[in-house]
Amino acid sequence: MEVKVLEHKPNxxxxxxxxxxxxxxxxxxxxxxxxVPVMAIDIVEFFENNTVLYDEIIAHRLGLIPLxxxxxxxxxxxxxxxxxxxxxxxxxxxxxxxxxxxxxxxxRVVYSGDMESSDPSVKPLYDNIPIxxxxxxxxxxxxxxxxxxxxxxxxxxxPVSIAAHKYLPVLHFDxxxxxxxxxxxxxxxxLPELAKKMRDQVRGSIEILEDINTSAIYWxxxxxxxxCAKLEYREGDYLLKIETTGALPAKVVLFKAIEAIKRKTxxxxxxxxxxxxxxxxxxxxx
Length: 286
Known about the structure:
It is flat and about 80 Å long. Helix 1 (22-34) packs across helix 8 (250-285), helix 5 (181-188) packs antiparallel against helix 6 (192-201) and helix 5 runs antiparallel to helix 7. A hairpin with a 2-residue loop joins strand 1 and strand 2. By secondary structure, the protein is an alpha+beta fold. It is 33% helix and 33% strand. The chain folds into two domains: 2-34 and 161-243, RNA polymerase, RBP11-like subunit (Gyrase A, domain 2); 38-157, Beta Complex (RNA Polymerase Alpha Subunit, Chain A, domain 2), CATH 2.170.120.12. The strands form three sheets. It has a five-stranded antiparallel β-sheet, sandwiched between helices. A four-stranded antiparallel β-sheet has the order 3-8-4-6, with helices on one face. A two-stranded antiparallel ribbon has the order 5-7. The two termini are 46 Å apart.
């Protein structure tokens, strides 16, 4: 297996992978969505709310606010242990308080930064996410409980906004002795740098490693290029892109997804071994 990092930022990661079975790569991609725990607000208690939004709407908006979760993975129990934990259990929950009142002539936007967290390491990723607009003489008092959860439970626990893979696009071309100007103009209209490489190189192949949509290139090769250029999607050679909500760094999400696949595989092998063992015992008795 060969892995090459093409682009790496705190919340963004692009890799080139060779020699990885497609089902395994797809399993890791899916695990990024469903099997990597992050913190999210799960339960909200309202003590006072006479704003324009109902309690349920505010609770839904609070749940979708991304919370910093990297330290929480080590500090708090996993979702499996917290299913029956009492509300407010310090091993499972982070408590947020929000108390806002407006005066007789005051209009105010309540933001995510107005919430107070019981744990400074777990807080809204951004302070400027709007929750509700308050009119004069209104008040909002609530207490919210955040816990670790999985994306398979609810989208608010998904650590990624994008986790996608595709075959590596490779453009094969031969511009010698052919009328290929229309083909080059078509590609040049949206990817001038690629067209320039083709003009300079005249013939050969270009691996398209950039994070671009190649459907327009495919259209050009089919409709305008004829024998001048052909786009191939190389099997066994993949590009993987991960973009997170910010709750966890992209690298952490990838590693945690791989760990989740390993745990599931180990559990499956153990269960298969037990079934085989039971079958041998029953066969011996027979």
